[in-house]
Design goal:
Layout lengths: L32 E2 L6 E2 L7 E5 H6 L5 H5 L5 E5 L5 E5 L21 E5 L2 E2 L14 E8 L3 H4 L6 E7 L8 E11 L4 E14 L2 E12 L4 E2 L3 E2 L42 E4 L2 E2 L11 E13 L5 E14 L3 E2 L1 H4 L4 E2 L6 E17 L2 E19 L10 H5 L2 H4 L7 E4 L4 E19 L6 E22 L3 H4 L37 E25 L3 E22 L13 H5 E3 H4 L12 E17 L2 E12 L2 E2 L15 E2 L2 E14 L4 E19 L9 E19 L7 E17 L18 E12 L5 E11 L2 E2 L9 E2 L2 E11 L3 E8 L7 E5 L6 E4 L4 E9 L1
Parallel strand pairs: 6-9, 13-20, 15-23
Antiparallel strand pairs: 1-2, 3-8, 4-5, 6-7, 8-9, 10-11, 10-45, 11-12, 12-17, 14-16, 17-18, 18-21, 19-44, 21-22, 22-24, 24-25, 25-26, 26-27, 27-28, 27-29, 29-30, 30-33, 31-32, 33-34, 34-35, 35-36, 36-37, 37-38, 38-41, 39-40, 41-42, 42-45, 43-44
């Protein structure tokens, strides 16, 4: 995952330290406790590349959301953009720009596992965006962690560890803040926590929060017409990223090149889409709101049960990217349909811990429900969608093989209404022998089942099939075996009723994806020479299955338009339930299935109690998936039914040192990662007019990660910490014969250098007050957003500066802060799938203040 080993820890997190304590710091570093091996251990004793942000450090850095804590971790990057819409990448192991129109059912499984306490909460396409309320720490484990943490830990694991109910006494905290963004709107947040022991052996804890983040992206006035469609751009045209168009026309439909010149199109009336009604400054507002309640029942000295329930909602408008051809500095974009997202989840988790004889036993289970409703402006698809004129122009304007063209093309206002319902159940049982034993082990079993039902309606407001009555043929005889849930057909999908789609829906995906995983795992360590030389071995058996059911259909299909020789299914769409059925006539697999073993081995050398060296061999994998446009393609490539697992092998040497009587901590590692059958998602107009996935390439990653933390006794209260990563990524062999991937190219979201440096100085103001000041600089080198040449965008390097200063007492804290003080447009992510650069940037210069009270 990201780099580094490890902790750029500030006077960081002592295991039970209260955030905001006013005590003067005397120098020296605190102990950092992590659970990277599913045991509580000192960070410096764990032979794993781990970075950790403890509770006090999270508070000092004002970490609240997904983006906040990822920017603190070098070599952890995120693709996508916007709340609830990002994917985590670690150590540059990335291949593709996440695409929300294929986010769920057709999305790649994540290769970085996201954990909330003991439960995995990773989901295909978009991670759960969990607000950082009342967290004890964030742990980032770099490199494959699959033996202990499962399938999606191929590149690493991010763990969010919450504060648990305490029997130690009543505790409460309130915090609130207000800030202002340059050129944007104000932001405010509120968080309240209470911990109540209700009996000698029972305690309750609850936290509630609201975070209102004002917008800073402007939707500016613009017009566009179907004249800008890829259909009217001839082969050989150079796209905006410098890649020539190939394979017929620039757009998505093969066939004769017609009507590409201004003269040929002179007789066509192109009606402009005009977004004047949607023009708005700062239109990307966001609000997080939710609560988490947990309870502890301590049965006796050996057994306890922890139960937690959380609910969270996100309400977000607009988009979080800008158009660099308009004005990246002013953060302008042109959108022609409303962009909105409502993302809600509830999560219930339970953990039973105890001892059986000399063994520690932990059983944890969790159930998560997530509902996402999103409306996305899809009008940018016009620039590559050669079929768009066919849908919104009359027949003569489409001009199949005929020039000059005449007729009318309606305004290209396109949008997607998406609804996703996700249910996840997980169970894990593990046992551990005492940590002090010369031979010790952890072993267990894991099971999870994810069901993700997704409805995507693609709406074309000017469709001629709607306006001219050419679609919606309700009397046209279709059977369930031909197209379940199709327009005019007899069946219904998972969300939709049978019968015609609602105007103006042209395409509908109504699909259920089921991911099921079973695993058995174990790691064992033996001290060959106690306190000096230890060997560790681990393995995991996995059995995973990914299935698709449902249909992907269109709402048009008159036989007079050249379809007389086609079957009903070819006209209307694909019935995935039949396509991937066990007895289907095409020989497609019933599901994407894989099983096998992965291994890990580590040798640890501890020449002194303050110095540790380790060498690790580890393996990781990511589940495969099924493609929807099976069998489509061109003369050189046919879309496969199944995408196979991609596998990684990691070789790593690391060191952890604590020097000069605990004043200086230096941690780091060097690594080499060999990647086989790297999965990626592709939109290639010369192959098929749909996104599909494939095992595109083999690749390798070479890297160095390091971090330090320095707290000198000579300057009490001062801590200087930093971290950096160096990456060299390369595609070593191309596996897909489409010309989309270039041997020797870089992987996606893999800057060659990332780093941060910060200092915190705390000083006494009186017997009860402590002042502090904290500057920070963060830098990232340039990177690419994809390995697919026609979809790739280069992101520029960036550097940002932050500064905070405040006063703390035993019971309260007041701080003023400035983020992005130089008002840098940091290019965090981007998308070029639709032949127009869309750059996701950081929030502009923001100045604010926050205050908190502890009881």
């Amino acid at each position: 995952m990201s780099v580094m080993a490890i902790l750029a820890a500030n006077p960081a997190f002592a295991q039970n330290a209260a955030a905001g304590a006013a005590a003067e710091r005397k120098g020296g570093l605190n102990v950092i406790v992590v659970t990277a091996t599913k045991r509580e251990e000192d960070l410096q004793d764990v032979p794993v590349a781990v970075q950790a942000l403890g509770e006090s450090e999270l508070n000092e850095l004002n970490v609240q959301t997904f983006d906040d804590y990822l920017t603190q971790l070098p070599n952890v990057t995120a693709g996508g953009g916007g709340p609830g819409q990002s994917t985590i990448y670690i150590r540059g192991l990335a291949s593709t720009t996440p695409n929300l129109t294929t986010a769920g059912v057709a999305g790649l499984a994540p290769n970085v596992a996201l954990y909330l306490d003991e439960q995995p909460v990773s989901q295909p396409g978009r991670n759960l965006d969990i607000y950082a309320a009342d967290l004890q720490r964030v742990e980032v484990l770099s490199g494959p962690q699959g033996t202990l943490f499962g399938a999606s830990s191929q590149a690493g694991t991010v763990r969010l560890i919450t504060n648990k109910p305490s029997l130690g006494g009543f505790d409460a905290k309130l915090s609130t803040g207000l800030s202002f963004t340059k050129g944007g709107e104000e932001n405010w947040n509120f968080e309240a926590m209470v911990n109540i022991p209700v009996a000698d052996n029972v305690a309750l804890r609850a936290v509630v929060y609201v975070d209102d983040q004002g917008g800073y992206i402007d939707n500016v006035q613009g017009t566009r017409s179907a004249r800008e469609s890829g259909r009217y751009r001839p082969e050989g045209t150079v796209r905006a990223n410098g890649v020539p168009v190939r394979g017929g026309r620039a757009g998505l439909q093969a066939g004769p090149d017609v009507a590409t010149t201004d003269a040929a199109l002179a007789g066509v009336d192109f009606i402009d889409a005009d977004n004047s009604a949607l023009v708005k400054d700062n239109f990307n507002d966001t609000r997080y709101f939710g609560f988490r309640a947990s309870g502890l029942w301590q049965f006796n000295d050996d057994w306890k049960l922890t139960l937690a329930h959380a609910r969270q909602g996100i309400r977000s408008d607009g988009v979080f990217f800008a158009d660099p051809t308009l004005d990246l500095d002013n953060l302008d974009i042109q959108r022609y349909s409303d962009d909105k997202i409502e993302d809600d989840f509830s999560n219930t988790a339970w953990t039973l811990e105890g001892r059986l004889g000399g063994l520690d036993l932990v059983y944890t289970g969790a159930y998560t429900e997530r509902e996402t409703a999103q409306r996305v402006d899809y009008s940018d698809y016009l620039f590559v969608g050669q079929y768009i004129p066919y849908y919104i122009c009359d027949s003569s304007a489409v001009a199949y093989g005929t020039t000059p063209a005449t007729g009318t093309c309606q305004a290209p206002v396109l949008g997607v209404n998406s609804r996703t319902d996700t249910e996840v159940m997980t169970h894990e049982l593990r046992v551990s022998s005492p940590a002090e034993n010369r031979f010790r082990f952890t072993a267990g079993g894991f099971y999870s089942k994810l069901e993700l039902a997704e409805l995507n309606d693609f709406n074309y407001a000017g469709s001629r099939f709607i306006n001219d009555g050419l679609g919606f043929v309700p009397n046209f005889p279709l059977t369930n075996t031909e197209v379940t849930g199709n327009v005019g057909g007899a069946g219904a999908g998972y969300f939709s009723d049978p019968g015609p789609f609602n105007t103006p829906t042209i395409f509908r995906n109504d699909i259920l994806r089921t991911d099921e995983q079973l695993g058995f795992f174990g790691e064992a360590s033996f001290d060959i020479v106690p306190d000096l030389l230890t060997v560790t071995g681990g393995l995991r058996y996995y059995d995973v299955s990914v299935d698709l059911e449902g249909s992907a259909n269109s709402s048009f299909g008159n036989r007079a338009n050249g379809n007389a020789g086609q079957t009903d299914a070819q006209i209307f769409g694909t019935n995935l339930s039949t396509q991937f059925a066990p007895d289907n006539p095409n020989g497609f697999p019933d599901a994407a299935e894989a099983d096998g073993f992965i291994f890990k081995g580590t040798v640890t050398l501890t020449p002194s109690e303050d110095v540790l060296f380790y060498a690790t061999y580890s393996e990781g994998y990511r589940p495969g998936l099924l493609n929807r446009p099976v069998g489509r393609g061109n003369a050189t490539f046919t879309v496969p039914a199944e995408v196979l697992t991609d596998d990684v092998v990691n070789y790593e040497i690391g060191w952890k040192t604590q020097l000069f009587e605990n004043q200086l901590r230096l941690n780091g590692n060097i690594f080499y990662v060999d990647i086989s059958r790297l999965q990626t998602t592709i939109l290639d107009p010369s192959i098929v007019n749909l996104f599909f996935s494939a095992n595109a390439a083999d690749a390798e990653i070479k890297g160095l990660e390091a971090d330090f933390s320095f707290a000198p006794y000579a300057v009490p209260g001062l801590t200087v910490s930093g971290a950096f990563s160096l990456l060299d990524t390369e595609i070593t062999e191309v596996l897909i014969p489409t010309g989309d991937v270039i041997e020797g190219g870089d992987l996606a979201f893999a800057p060659s250098f990332q780093g941060n440096l910060r200092a915190r100085y705390e000083f006494p103001l009186s017997n009860t007050l402590t002042g502090h000041i904290q500057p920070q600089v963060t830098h990232s080198g340039s990177s690419f957003t994809d390995i697919i040449e026609i979809n790739k965008l280069k992101l520029d390097s960036w550097t940002t500066f932050d500064l905070s200063a405040g006063v703390t007492s035993d019971s309260w804290m007041f701080e003023v802060f400035g983020k992005n003080l130089t008002d840098e447009r940091a290019q965090i992510s981007g998308n070029f799938v639709n032949d127009r650069a869309r750059i996701t940037v950081n929030r502009p210069l923001t100045i604010g203040a926050r205050v908190s009270w502890n009881y």
